[in-house]
C-alpha cells in the first residue's frame, strides 16, 4: 500500500485507488431539503422550548412572590400559616383556599394583584404556554384562528396553580439529591426542596432551600459525619422538569427528522 502524504484530497484519492478500498458499500441517496421543511422543524423546536421558558417564568413568579409573602407575615401574622394557592384568570391572579375566610382570601388576592412584578411574571408564563401551543399548531399546518387562540388562552389560565407547581418542582428536584446524609443552608437550617410551599411561612422556607441550591452555598453532612461544601448546585426551575405542563394541541406529529435511503 503506498504511503499516504500530501493534501487531504490526495490522501482520499490514494485510499480509493488501493486494492483494500471497500466497494461494497451501498450508496446513500440524499434528497434536497425543501426550505419549507426547515421552517416547520424550526417551528416545532420553538414550540418544544415552551416548557423550559415556562420554567424560567415560574422562577420569576417565585422570586416576585417573596416580597409579598414577607409583607403578608408582617401585616397579617394570623395568616402566616394559612394554606392557599393562586392561578391566572384573564390577566388577574385568583386566590383559592379551602380554609381561608372569603374576606381574608380576597384581601390576600388584592395583595398578590398589587405586586406588578408578580402579575407580569404570571402573564409571561401564560403567554409562553399559549405561544408554544400556537406554534405547534402552525407547524402542523393548522394555524389557530382568533377564536381558537382565545379558547387556548382560557385553557392556559387553568393550566396550573402556582403553589402546587412549586411544590411539584421541589419534590421532583429532591429525588435527585444524595440520601446518605443531610443538606443544610449556609445559616444551618435544613435544606428541603420537597417541603410544602403553600403558605407564606412555608413558601419562604422553600425559597431559602431553592436559593441555597441555586447558589451552591449549601453543605452536605454525610451519615458518617463528613462535611462536603458546595456539593449541591441546582436550579429547581431550570431543570425542564417532567412536572412542567406540556401544553400542545392534538397532533399526528410524533418525531422530527429527515429520512435517508440507503
Please give a structural write-up.
The chain is mainly alpha-helical. The chain folds into 2 domains: about 30-160, no CATH class; about 160-240, no CATH class. The protein has 8 helices and 5 strands; from the N terminus they run H-H-H-E-E-H-H-H-H-E-H-E-E. The longest helix is centred in the first third of the chain and has 26 residues, at about 50-75. It is flat, with a radius of gyration of 27 Å. About 25% of the residues are buried.
Provide a concise account of the structure shown.
The protein has eight helices and five strands. It is mainly alpha-helical.
Total separate domains: 2
* Tally of contiguous helical segments: 8
Spatial ordering of strands, largest sheet: 3-4-5
Structural class: mainly alpha
Query: Could you give the order of the helices and strands?
Result: HHHEEHHHHEHEE
Distance N to C terminus: 30 Å
The counted number of beta strands is 5
Query: What proportion of the residues is helical, as a percent range?
Result: 40-55%
Average pLDDT across residues? Answer: 86
- Overall shape: it is flat
Extract low-pLDDT stretches. Answer: 1-26, 28-33, 258-262
- SS strand fraction: 5-15%
Q: Main beta sheet, described?
A: 3 strands, antiparallel
Please compute the radius of gyration using only Cα atoms: 27 Å
Amino acid at each position: 500500500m503506498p504511503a499516504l502524504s500530501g493534501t487531504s484530497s490526495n490522501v482520499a484519492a490514494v485510499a480509493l485507488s488501493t486494492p483494500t478500498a471497500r466497494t461494497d458499500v451501498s450508496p446513500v441517496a440524499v434528497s434536497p431539503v425543501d426550505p419549507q421543511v426547515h421552517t416547520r422543524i424550526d417551528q416545532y423546536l420553538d414550540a418544544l422550548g415552551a416548557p423550559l421558558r415556562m420554567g424560567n417564568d415560574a422562577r420569576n413568579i417565585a422570586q416576585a412572590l417573596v416580597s409579598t409573602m414577607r409583607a403578608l407575615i408582617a401585616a397579617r401574622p394570623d395568616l402566616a400559616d394559612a394554606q392557599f394557592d393562586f392561578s391566572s384568570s384573564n390577566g388577574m391572579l385568583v386566590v383559592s383556599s379551602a380554609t381561608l375566610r372569603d374576606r381574608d382570601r380576597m384581601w390576600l388576592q388584592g395583595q398578590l394583584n398589587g405586586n406588578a412584578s408578580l402579575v407580569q411574571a404570571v402573564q409571561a408564563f401564560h403567554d409562553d404556554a399559549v405561544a408554544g401551543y400556537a406554534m405547534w399548531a402552525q407547524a402542523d399546518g393548522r394555524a389557530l384562528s382568533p377564536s381558537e387562540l382565545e379558547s387556548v388562552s382560557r385553557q392556559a389560565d387553568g393550566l396550573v396553580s402556582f403553589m402546587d407547581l412549586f411544590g411539584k418542582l421541589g419534590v421532583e428536584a429532591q429525588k435527585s439529591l444524595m440520601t446518605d446524609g443531610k443538606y443544610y443552608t449556609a445559616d444551618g437550617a435544613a435544606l428541603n426542596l420537597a417541603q410544602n410551599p403553600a403558605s407564606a411561612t412555608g413558601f419562604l422556607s422553600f425559597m431559602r432551600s431553592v436559593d441555597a441550591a441555586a447558589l451552591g452555598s449549601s453543605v452536605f453532612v454525610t451519615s458518617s459525619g463528613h462535611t462536603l461544601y458546595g456539593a449541591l448546585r441546582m436550579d429547581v426551575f431550570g431543570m425542564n422538569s417532567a412536572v412542567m405542563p406540556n401544553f400542545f394541541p392534538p397532533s399526528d406529529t410524533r418525531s422530527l427528522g429527515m429520512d435517508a435511503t440507503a
